[in-house]
Each structure stands twice: as structure tokens, then as C-alpha cells.
Design brief:
Oligomer: single chain
Shape: globular
Number of strands: 0
Radius of gyration: 19 Å
Number of domains: 2
Helix content: 55-70%
Largest sheet: none
């Protein structure tokens, strides 16, 4: 199973629909201002109160809506549309926007959730429903946060968790390309300042709870910002020994010792996101690039390690299918 099919799409969609509205357990990101804040998650987040946490709910919606567009005849298509018609509506969006006005919400979901919300809006804009128009005000709120935050972010975050700068900017740049030239230019400027001179990456990864490759997400971002020849030059200097299998860490799937531990279960996501990155980097370099077949084999090895574990424990089940979709598509 190394490419997306309608059968896989149906299974992923059914799995994700089962938890988009599952309210508990739920991990709130909330600083109490007073006793009036002691309310259930759905009161704070009228749309994104399922799937264990806010950002997983957002990219769960991205996943099912994208699958619906890619496979309009899939068995879950009608259920997805019905759920979207009920949830992705202006009054519920207003509730989500209201949460952002809280005095302590400036760093809410920064930057991971910001980026996934923009990715969701971009996906909805490709579809035949009213949902993109409903979500757009919330997307513009998060775009404004990127505009305000990126100029004062002196240093990038190279960790393999939600705070990773490169992963967020990949999605934000994809949204900005057709909508916000100023944000597109800002992302390019900041990324080149942060990463343009990076050389001989050691790829000291993974950490024990990481679901992103710091090295490969950076490279994938640069592949989206540079012309092919420019990227080839940059990538050759950034990871100069790939053709000899080094750094070996980037070719070795992570071992997941306990999938009931939410942090350790992140490592299944690392394997999936590495597969996505390897395939995207190879595509950016071109099929005739010497690294292309090596990258595809690395992607397959990581997929083989992770795909059998998409479901089975809620610590991974509430989010892994979204990363599997990135890798398989």
C-alpha cells in the first residue's frame, strides 16, 4: 500500500468521521480568565471540539474533505457532505473566531494549527459547497497572525513537534500563493534568511516524541520556494552525503515502543511525514535526479513501518490518517 486508492480513502474517511465529533477525551488549550471559562470544549470551539484536540480536528476536516474531492464516488462522500453542511457554517465559525479574541490566545495553536486551518480553507476553496466562504474569515484571522508574527521571529524552530517552523510555512505558503502575495513574499524572505545558508545537516533525529523530521521538512519547504536548479544546489549542500546513505537516521524508520503513549505514538507520524517529505523532495528534483529512486525506497520503508498502525489506539487514531494521506497522495 504505497499509493492512495478509493478503498483506502473510504477506510480513512470512515475512521476520521468516527472521531471528528467525538468530544471526549479532549485536550483544551485554555488559560482561564475566570470561573465562567469552566465550560465544555464544544462551547469554546463550536466546530473543532473533536478528535482529541483542536489542531487534530482541523486536519481531520482537511482530510475528509480532500478525500471527498479526490473520490466523489466514495462510500463516505454523502456523510462527509452532510457533516460539513451542519458544522462548517458562519455562526459556528463566529464562535471559533471569538476564542481568538481572548487576552491570552495570541499564541493559540502557533504555528501548527494556524497552518492547518489555512490548508483546510485552501482545500474547501476547491470544492463545490459553501464551506470555504464560511471558513474564510477564520482563515484570514490566522493569515493576519502570520503577518504579525513572522517579522519578529528572529530564529526558526527546528524541533520535530507542533512548533516546527518549516512544516507550518509549507502549508501557509500553499494557501498564500493564490490569495496573499504579501504573505507569500514574507514566507520566502523569512525562510531564506533562516535556512538559505544551511549546510551539511547532521539530522540528529528523531527525538523521543517527534512526528516531523526537522531536516526533511526544511528541505521540503525550500523545494517549494526555489526553482529546481536552485533547490538542487541548495539540497546538495544541505545533505551532501545522501547518495552514500548518510545521515543514516533519515533512512531508518523510527521504532515505536508503546502506541498507547500519546507522545511515543508521535513516532508513527514521523515515519509518515518523512515518507511525504521524501516523495515531495524527489518530485521537486525530478525523476532523473540520482536521489529519486533512493528517496522513493526510503518513503516506502517508512510507510511500511507506519501504515499498519493508523488505527488501534486513540492516541494515534485521532490524527495519523491525515499524515498517511499526505504520504500516500
Amino acid at each position: 500500500m504505497t499509493r492512495l486508492t478509493q478503498d483506502i480513502a473510504d477506510r480513512f474517511a470512515a475512521l476520521t468521521l468516527s472521531h471528528l465529533g467525538r468530544q471526549y477525551p479532549y485536550k483544551m488549550d485554555l488559560t482561564y480568565q475566570g470561573p465562567e471559562d469552566a465550560r465544555i470544549p464544544a462551547d469554546h470551539h463550536p466546530i473543532f471540539h473533536g478528535s482529541y484536540d483542536w489542531h487534530s480536528c482541523v486536519h481531520g476536516w482537511w482530510q475528509v474533505m480532500r478525500l471527498r474531492r479526490l473520490y466523489p464516488a466514495m462510500a463516505q462522500a454523502d456523510a462527509i457532505r452532510a457533516r460539513a453542511d451542519a458544522m462548517l457554517v458562519p455562526d459556528k465559525v463566529a464562535g471559533e473566531r471569538a476564542f481568538l479574541t481572548r487576552p491570552t490566545a495570541g499564541g493559540f495553536e502557533r504555528p501548527y494549527g494556524w497552518a492547518w486551518l489555512l490548508a483546510l480553507h485552501a482545500e474547501l476553496a476547491r470544492q463545490d459547497g459553501p464551506w470555504a466562504a464560511a471558513i474564510e474569515p477564520l482563515a484570514l484571522d490566522f493569515a493576519a497572525r502570520f503577518h504579525a508574527f513572522l517579522p519578529k521571529m528572529t530564529y526558526p524552530l527546528r524541533v520535530g513537534t507542533h512548533f516546527n517552523s518549516s512544516f507550518a510555512l509549507i502549508h501557509a505558503h500553499g494557501w498564500a500563493k493564490d490569495r496573499d502575495p504579501a504573505l507569500q513574499a514574507l514566507i520566502r524572505e523569512r525562510a531564506l534568511a533562516w535556512f538559505g545558508q544551511d549546510r551539511a545537516c547532521q539530522a540528529w533525529e528523531p527525538g523521543g516524541d517527534e512526528f516531523l523530521s526537522s531536516a526533511l521538512t526544511e528541505a521540503l519547504l525550500m523545494s517549494r520556494l526555489l526553482a529546481r536548479d536552485e533547490f538542487a544546489d541548495w539540497f546538495g549542500a544541505f545533505l551532501p552525503d545522501l547518495l552514500t546513505g548518510q545521515p543514516a537516521t533519515l533512512f531508518t524508520p523510527a521504532t515505536v515502543s508503546d502506541r498507547s503513549d500519546g507522545k511515543i505514538a508521535h513516532l508513527d507520524g514521523l515515519n509518515l511525514s518523512r515518507a511525504w517529505c521524501w516523495r515531495g523532495i524527489a518530485a521537486a528534483l525530478g525523476a532523473d535526479a540520482p536521489i529519486a529512486p533512493i528517496a522513493e525506497q526510503a518513503a516506502i520503508a517508512h510507510l511500511d513501518a507506519a501504515l499498519p498502525h493508523i488505527a488501534g489506539d486513540y492516541m494515534g487514531e485521532h490524527w495519523l490518517a491525515s499524515f498517511a494521506l499526505l504520504a500516500l497522495e
